Amino acid sequence: MFAALEQFFAIARSTLTECLRQPVALAVVLVAGLFVVLSNPFSAYTMSDDNHMFVDIGLSTLFLAGAILAAFLATSAISREIENKTLLTIVSKPVSRSVFVIGRFAGVAGSLIVSLSFLALLYAIVEQHGVLETAATPIHLSVVLFGAIGLIVSAASAVWMNYFHNQSFAACFLVFGVPILLVAYLLSMLFNAKLEAQTMSMAFEPEQWKAIALIVEAIVVLCAIAVAASTRLGQVMTLSITMGALILGLLSDWIFGRTVLLYESMTASTDATAPLVSAASESVTPTAYAFARTAWSVVPDFQMFFVTDAINQGVGVPAAYFWTASVYACCMVAAFVAIAIALFQRREVG
């Protein structure tokens, strides 16, 4: 038992370091971070609530960046090891294949959480500033000051570790940037736009963090799908399946859900309401309903994790919904990791 735990942590740690060192991780984070920052002034040109537009753009950027990272990092978690024949040195040792798969998934998921935490903190700092809707709106000095200092210190720390200790700049920038930006975010909440002290509760927005947590959960589910596909397929096919699963999951309500709801409304309708639904549901056969119901249950519903509409409408994310979505994400992750283990048991790695 202890030997398996040691092997798991060793594989997860090496995978985490390997993923954070990849140039694509830093490139995606930098591009997404720049887009988050620029979306603040760009949101000032809407005809309605500018801050709502910024929330839409910011959270969408986090979701898209996480999906791209999951697709590129998780697809190479196992398939690249098989193609390069480096997996032989691992499976030839007393390491079970299930421990290897779980460790690989944990490492990739950890790298995604670190990258998204960096972007989430940057988004929270920019969101704390708010959109300059008019020329009279003051610049939030504490956000600009502490946010800029946080990014500069993160980059300087990564340069120091890279130059003097020969460490990866990308990995150090992300790992150091998370706690540094966290401190910058906390400081920006302790001071108002004029650098006057205020209570943190006046600036903290828990609903925003619930929305961010749900996005992270969705990306971890996508990571599990990519790891499962990479146990049998190459990088190109794994990448295609991962992005296809994302698109299908975002459209599952429209593709499968409406068929299920139409058929159920048809069967549950009374004599008085039957004519109203018969025309729309006459093409829904029991076979089509069974297929749609099965697909709707099996395909991950990524739309469940994207709650920007609730945030913008001031409804928030109810605790019951948040925990239901979290349990759903855990079940999906467990299912796809189990599929990955089953697929990898008889995979030829030589």
**Overall shape:** flat
Total discrete domains: 1
Give a short account of the largest sheet.
none
Number of strands: 0
Record the SSE blueprint.
Elements: H1 2-21, H2 23-42, H3 50-75, H4 79-83, H5 88-91, H6 97-129, H7 141-165, H8 169-190, H9 206-230, H10 235-250, H11 252-268, H12 274-281, H13 286-298, H14 308-312, H15 319-344
Helix pairs in contact: 1-6, 1-8, 2-3, 2-6, 3-6, 3-9, 3-10, 6-8, 6-9, 6-15, 7-8, 9-10, 9-15, 11-12, 11-13
Account of the protein in words:
The protein is mostly helical and 350 residues long. It has one domain (2-250, 320-344). Helix content is 76%, strand content 0%. The chain contains 15 helices and no strands. The longest helix is centred in the N-terminal third of the chain and has 33 residues, at 97-129. It is flat, with a radius of gyration of 23 Å.
Characteristic terms for this protein:
350 residues, 76% helix, flat
Summarize the structure in short.
The chain has 350 residues and is an all-alpha fold. It has one domain.
